[in-house]
Design brief:
alpha+beta, 8-stranded antiparallel sheet, 8 strands, transmembrane, transmembrane helix, membrane
């Protein structure tokens, strides 16, 4: 029996009990038929039994669905609310995980960028200070054609080779077609590919010399190739301080 039907019977039973009490009062006053009073008494007893029975059924969830129905009626949003809270908690957790993953990814990306943007080497720092197309400086490849070495388009006698970061490590000046008479004659060519203030500093042997630039505080090793007539057919410029 459902919750609402049980309540209706309880109300009817209570009214019957009240009627029974009135009948007793009338009986005492001897103003009512005894058969009527007996019928009212029987109805009242039956009603009272119904009240106790339905009260017992309502209080015992195994015998009736009235209580369950009442709970479902009084708290219709209970399970839905719990589900909503659970879903909201899940969404917050998912969002937090997503943010953490995004932050981790951003930190990883930032770390990779920091590692890739490493501190410049001493060679690069030096090359940044020098003009292009000189010893220790960067090469401008548009001024050269690539052969075994880079061959200058403007100066047919000049060849260069590079190390890391396109920094020039060797300059070779070929004078076989027009040999130079002395080392002094070679100085102007040497200064074109090193520094304008480069001067002879010391002699290693008859074919090897150390030149120095005071403005740059750099040394260059100069090697000469001399033909049978004692003239210079090649001048090679190498880094003296092992910077390349």
């Amino acid at each position: 029996m459902d919750y609402y039907t049980a309540n209706v019977f309880k109300i009817i039973s209570i009214v019957a009990l009240i009627f029974f009490v009135l009948c007793l009062v009338i009986l005492v006053a001897k103003k009512c038929n005894k058969k009527f009073i007996g019928l009212a008494t029987l109805l009242s007893v039956a009603s009272a039994a119904s009240v106790f029975y339905f009260q017992h059924v309502e209080n015992n969830p195994k015998l009736s669905t009235a209580t369950d129905h009442k709970e479902r009626y009084d708290f219709p949003e209970s399970s839905s609310s719990e589900k909503s809270v659970s879903e909201t908690s899940s969404e917050i957790s998912s969002s937090a995980s997503s943010d953490n993953a995004s932050n981790a990814k951003t930190e990883t990306s930032s770390s990779e960028t920091s590692n890739s943007t490493k501190v410049k080497s001493s060679q690069e720092e030096l090359a940044d200070k020098l003009p292009k197309n000189v010893e220790y400086g960067y090469i401008d490849k548009s001024d050269f054609t690539k052969e075994t070495m880079y061959h200058s388009k403007e100066f047919d006698y000049a060849y260069v080779s590079t190390g890391e970061h396109n920094i020039i490590k060797t300059v070779k000046l070929d004078f076989r077609d027009l040999p130079l008479a002395s080392l002094d004659d070679a100085l102007e060519y040497i200064q074109d590919w090193t520094s304008r203030d480069t001067q002879l500093q010391s002699k290693v042997d008859d074919r090897t010399y150390i030149y120095h630039s005071a403005s740059l505080n750099l040394n260059y090793e100069i090697k000469l190739v001399i033909n049978s007539q004692g003239k210079i057919t090649r001048v090679s410029i190498f880094p003296d301080d092992s910077l390349i």
